[in-house]
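PT: before anyone asks, these are the final sequences, not the draft ones from last week. 300 residues across everything. Please model them as a single complex and drop the result in this thread when it's through.
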Amino acid sequence: MYDIIIVGAGTAGLSAAIYGVRAGKSVLVLEASVYGGQIINTPEIENYPGIKHISGYEFATNLYEQAKELGAEIQFEKVIGIRSDNDTKIVITESQEYECKSIILATGAKNKPLGLKQENELIGAGISYCATCDGAFYRGKDVAVIGGGNTALEDANFLSAYCNKVYIIHRRDKFRGEEKILNTLKKKHNVEFLLNSQVKELLSDGSLTGIMLQEKNTDNQRRLDIKGLFIAIGQIPENLMFSEHVELDQGGYIVGKEDCKTKEDGIFVAGDCRTKTVRQLATAASDGAIAALAACEYIG
Ligand code: NAP
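LR: through. Structure below.
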């Protein structure tokens, strides 16, 4: 019987683990794939207070090692559901069940697809959701990044260092991403902005050979001959398996306020999977601390 089981080893989950073990609780973190969550794919972080520059990979690895060294148990198993039996909570994975007194859901979110024909088949053959992981395959080539948030801008910046040409395609003329990185990109000779544009079609001969773009409110179409398309259009949460215990909003996020409590006593929510307006590294870490301390108070 663990005191706290945390579902997800991203920034929120691992921060919660650190706070849980430091409060003297037994903590198990369950992660379906790799530790770190989304931040592991960010080339460079320079907005986490107290750390001037760090790569997403190094940040995530530090967090993982810190949680382990402090005494958190971390298992790589996919959680497929939860159950409550009076005061005992049961977390069900693909291979076994674990009992605990409280649960923190820190499932984050996964990359949102564009939903275009052939998008799935071309993953690894021109389509990527991670510039840091796959960018090196496109050295000297022409590529495009789609999206208008920080991820798209950071990906474009990363790719511009070794691709021949980087197009940034955004469906509006205003970006969500930070002004500082936008200004950096505007000064780069090999970066071109294609605004008010949407990808209409993927072109391929087995691998991506190009895309067709449609300009908003006009009949204008444009063909871009590119070898790589980096899709950075946000994330979608995956919380349906918990819907009998927690409330989900229309987008599938777990309803929880700043106290990280859900509608069921003993179940808490932390990080990007929670209903919130600011999804940042700092707010994910903050949620982890709040959820863990709330769980400690609940356990008593
Ligand atoms: P995001 O901020 O949600 O931006 C997604 C972008 O994709 C938006 O510009 C959106 O357009 C566009 N988009 C969404 N659906 C689309 C579609 N079907 N077709 C075309 N475009 C579409 O996502 P994100 O950039 O991944 O960032 C997620 C969160 O993580 C943000 O809070 C971000 O600040 C944070 N983040 C932080 C860092 C950092 O701190 N270093 C790094 C990366 C991300 P509209 O603008 O028109 O809606």
